[in-house]
Every structure is written in structure tokens, then in C-alpha cells.
Design a protein that fits this description.
Distance between the termini: 45 Å
Number of strands: 4
Structural class: alpha+beta
């Protein structure tokens, strides 16, 4: 299994290098603020999500108009809270259905199906592999020349482990200042939404 994950790291790097070119063309002149590699709770899918300040502003305005009263919108604005800033599933740009990362997901699925008990024992190794591959990609500056200002993290869809995985991976992948800002914003949003829902 260790050999599988060692090989997987290289394959993830190659897949992202190809997929990101198409995404960057789509983004154009917009300014990237965050990039995430996202998996599911079984770690058998993997996709790349990227968001920009421009898309975030447009999406937050749309969500506020659609789902919240004027009073609620004012509360959200008072606390400088974004509705989707750190939720990769709601971001504007992704690798898509015909991407290289879709092929990686097929490999992961086949490996899990062939021996699900053994695969499940190696979830930590999967996350380490993805983090290491992501770190190499960041160091190669494939996300742009201002890559040290971008927030990077690994996420896990619909899973209680996601906050810990996101925080740990951001600490490993980001500069100290970027990580600190991310961590503080997440805490602020968690506190706000906790109080809001009570």
C-alpha cells in the first residue's frame, strides 16, 4: 500500500499541473485567494478547487439576496463574515469532469474496492501523500507568482474531520502569516455562526 501512495503523489502532481492550466485560463485576470484539494470521507475522490476575490464577492451578494433578510445581512456584514469564502464546494473554479484528477479518483476507487479494510487503515497516509504533492506544486509556483499570498488547504466534504484537516494542512502548506489569517477567520466565522444559530 505504501508503494501505491508513493506513486500516487507523483500522479497527483502531474494531474494538477495539467488541470490547473485550463482553470487559470478560465480565471483570467481575477485574483486567486485560495486553492484547495478536496476529497470525500472515504478518500476515494480528489478534486481541485480555486476561488478568486471577484467570484467570492459576486457569490456572497447573490446568496445574501436569496437566503437572508435585510436584518440578517446587516449582522453578517457587521462581523465581516463571508458566506462561502472557505467552502470549496461553493467556489467558482474546479478541474471538471474530463480532468486528470478524475482519473486519479478512478484509481483511488479501484484501490478501495479491491481491499476496503486495508485502504481504510491508510487514510492518514493518503492525506500525507496529498499534502506532500500539494506542497511540491505550491513550491513550483504553478498557481501564479503571488503564490505565497494564497491560502492553501486540504478539505474533506461532509465530514466532521474537515476542520482539523483544513487547519493542519493550511499550517503545513501556507506561510506563517497566511495561515494565521486563515485560522483567525475560521475561528471568527465558527463563533459567529454558532451564536447566530442559537
Amino acid at each position: 500500500m505504501e508503494l501505491f501512495f508513493k506513486d500516487l503523489g507523483y500522479k497527483i502532481e502531474q494531474a494538477v499541473k495539467k488541470d490547473v492550466q485550463k482553470i487559470l485560463k478560465e480565471i483570467g485576470d481575477e485574483r486567486i485567494y485560495s486553492v484547495a484539494l478536496v476529497t470525500d470521507s472515504d478518500c476515494i475522490t480528489l478534486f481541485l478547487a480555486i476561488n478568486t476575490y471577484e467570484y467570492l464577492e459576486k457569490e456572497d451578494k447573490k446568496q445574501m439576496k436569496s437566503f437572508y433578510s435585510e436584518e440578517e445581512v446587516n449582522k453578517i456584514r457587521e462581523h465581516s463574515i463571508s458566506l462561502s469564502k472557505w467552502i470549496p464546494d461553493e467556489w467558482g473554479y474546479s478541474d471538471g469532469k474530463d480532468s486528470e484528477l478524475v482519473e486519479i479518483s478512478k484509481l483511488l476507487y479501484e484501490k478501495e474496492v479491491s481491499n476496503s479494510e486495508e485502504y481504510e487503515k491508510h487514510i492518514d497516509l493518503f492525506l500525507e501523500t496529498v499534502t506532500s504533492a500539494f506542497k511540491h506544486l505550491i513550491e513550483s509556483k504553478i498557481f501564479g507568482e503571488n503564490s505565497e499570498e494564497i491560502t492553501y488547504f486540504i478539505s474533506m466534504s461532509d465530514d466532521d474531520r474537515a476542520p482539523d484537516i483544513e487547519d493542519h494542512s493550511a499550517k503545513v502548506l501556507c506561510s506563517e502569516n497566511v495561515y494565521k489569517r486563515f485560522h483567525e477567520e475560521i475561528l471568527k466565522e465558527t463563533e459567529f455562526w454558532g451564536n447566530y444559530n442559537n
